[in-house]
Amino acid sequence: MANPFTDNNTRVLAIASGKGGVGKSSVTTNLAISLALRGATVAAIDADVWGFSMPRMLGITEPPTVHDPDSERPTMFPPSAHGVSLISMGFFARDDQPVVWRGPMLHKALEQFLTDVEWGTPDFLLVDMPPGTGDVSLSVAQFLPRAEVVVVTTPQLAAQKVAQRAAFMAKKVNLAVVGVVENMSWFRGDDNKAYELFGSGGGQELANELEVPLLGQVPLVPELCEGGDSGRPIVVADPNAEASKIFAEIAEKLAVELAPKRIYRPALRIT
Ligand SMILES: Nc1ncnc2c1ncn2[C@@H]1O[C@H](COP(=O)(O)OP(=O)(O)O)[C@@H](O)[C@H]1O
Ligand SMILES: [Mg+2]
Predict the structure, then answer these.
(1) Of 40, 176, 182, 190, which sees the most CB atoms within 10 A?
(2) Ligand at shortest distance from the CA of 23
């Protein structure tokens, strides 16, 4: 089977950051569900080999089902939850073994995820990238040349420098950066005041430097952390929460404002 994502109309969004722990997987998961809640068909690849966390975040415990397992190239059907079909490196790693994937294996695994999985033709494919700028980024660029990169950062100015590396990498492999998401931007206390625990301005500054929009600022909320463990992400568990509304806005920006422009020719007007 061929890789369907090189020439179909699926929008591929690669969610990247310069380092781990900034909330990349949380953003990928909640954004994927928010896009699905808008009516889009959404698929996701958890390509973070060191910290595959999307199955847990989405509450998926079933591995992919394998069709025709005895054939030379069996087809996999991805499990799904909350409207998001998912393939994760985690489905193929055994709990009792440390994951020591090397570049070529990762490359092969990613290729297999794209070619041996029955994805259909989703409107969006989100890829939770590993932190940093290693081999997987190169493979993603090669297999998904139309991927648009969303860079996740935290508000402190030092983090923005780290996140910038992900953007430089994108440029090097010829992927377009579509926008920045700032995560853990503030904590809203019982007094309803927003406390900027990790400083401020990092997301906007990075967006300015990259000349892309700041897609949104996601607050630090305990429910987001809990949702990551319970399999009920905040956008599902509490759709009216401040953070959930922000994810919905980010989804809307990506799906509508930043949709690839259709070529409009007045001469082709239907009369
Ligand atoms: N906005 C947030 N509010 C509260 N906790 C968050 C938020 N974003 C992420 N977290 C928590 O921080 C930790 C790291 O987030 P994660 O999405 O796994 O980061 P990454 O994928 O970048 O390593 C997780 O425990 C997650 O639940
Ligand atoms: Mg992660």
Answers:
(1) 182
(2) 1
Q: How far apart are CA 2 and CA 47, in angstroms?
A: 19
**Would you state the structure tokens that stand for residue 148, as one six-digit string?**
């648009």
Kindly state whether residue 123 falls inside one of the protein's structural domains: yes
Domain contains 17: yes
| Between residues 48 and 180, the one the model is more confident about | 180
Given pLDDT bands bounded at 50, 70 and 90, which one contains residue 161?
confident
pLDDT per position as a tens digit, 202-224: 999 999 999 999 999 999 999 88
The CATH number of the domain holding residue 162 is 3.40.50.300
- Between the CA of 106 and the centroid of ligand 1 the distance, in Å, is 24
pTM of this prediction? 0.92
- In this structure, the residues whose C-beta lies within 6 A of any atom of ligand 1 are 17, 20-26, 51, 53, 183-184, 218, 220-221, 224-225, 228
CA of 56 to the centre of ligand 2 (A): 11
Domain count of the fold of the chain: 1
Return the amino acid letter for 154. T
- 266 lies in a domain? no
Contact predicate 129/137, CB 8 Å: yes
Range of 234's domain? 4-258
Q: What is the pLDDT of residues 85-113, one digit of tens each?
A: 999 988 877 665 655 666 777 888 889 88
Whether residue 226 contacts residue 190, with contact meaning beta carbons closer than 8 Å, is answered with: no
Whether residue 229 is contained in a domain is answered as yes
Q: Which residue matches tokens 């939850």?
A: 81
Which residue in this structure is represented by tokens 């509304």?
245
